[in-house]
Amino acid sequence: MKSDFTAGIQAPKVDMNLPKYMTFQELQKLFTYLKHDPRPQRIRNELMFKLLATTGMRRQELVDLTWE
To answer: Which of 11, 21, 34, 53 is surrounded by the fewest CB atoms within 10 Å?
Structure first.
């Protein structure tokens, strides 16, 4: 090739931050709190966090779930 067609194209910005994970003790604390939460959304919140923590599901995958 006589010319580089990729010259001048910038690479996308790469996020250098590593994800932050909860420890097992922090998860237990969260689940205990959710289990005793007096609000009406308690069951929904508990289910959502347990799905995220135990399946490796991403947030958007959880949001995209539908009842079928």
So the answer is: 11
Amino acid code (one letter) for 41: Q
With a pLDDT cut of 70, the percent of the chain lying above it is 99
- pTM of the full predicted structure? 0.61
Rg (CA), the chain: 21
- Say if residues 40 and 47 touch (Cβ distance below 8 Å): no
How does DSSP classify residue 3? S
The CA dihedral of 9, 11, 13, 18, to the nearest 10 degrees, is 180
